[in-house]
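User: My instructor asked us to take a sequence, write out its structure as tokens, and then describe one feature of it. I'm not sure where to start. Here is the sequence I was given:
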Amino acid sequence: MSVQSSDIAAVWRNSPLSSIPPHELLLVSDFDGTLADIVPEPTLATPLPDSLHALRRLVPMLKKVVILSSRTNTELAEHLPIPGAELIGDSGLPPPTPQELEALRVFNAEAAKLLGHTPGAWIEIKPASSAVHFRNAPISGQKVLDIVGPLLHETGLYGGLGRKVIEVHSPNAGKGNALEALFKRLHPGGLVVMGDDENDRSMFRVASRASIPRLCVGVGSAEVPPDLFDHCDLILDGPAEASALLRSLAEWATTGERT
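Assistant: Let's start with the prediction itself. The structure tokens for your sequence are:
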């Protein structure tokens, strides 16, 4: 369901999650578009101050606060100085095999040639993936996908079209697998997941199948298809409303209020 800003605190209070002890709750959130507004230059993105403050309050209260992002671990550490939070970069992808590493190398080299005449398009190389950015390019996402699609097929890599970016990595991998690994390691009694983009889809899908109380939160924008949030319980309007939800969660965890 979608919700108005004034109702966010009530949504949390009425959620089955609000009746469990805070120390059993696992919070997993994306970064860009969820904790921070999307900006033309990714290096300039910063988390909303209220979100950062709420996360710092939540770290000692919850089972675990996890930031699961396609950013690198180094970038996350720079943007999110939150002692005790677990920062998982590169979408939680495992180290690539030699074959996957070679496939990424070939993709990066050839895609750079294919997009060399498209101003504003660039390729970000990460430990286990790559990202084709085109937010500042005069080209549509589908056109970029048409250009690199044959190369993805040739290398056997997956390319997910997101918010002015195509995330490229080995198939059958991503945030959903990372969330399943967190379940196995932490055994939470409740779960909140938050995300805004295509690479969060597998995380929403895994969370929706969990047998524990959960809240899947989509952070909406005009840049994603509506079906991205098919598995979500709640759809918010941008990082500001996500920040309001985190504040409500922090108040609940701190005061010990239960339904």
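For the description part of your assignment, you could build on this observation: The chain has eight helices and ten strands. Try explaining in your own words what that tells you about the chain.
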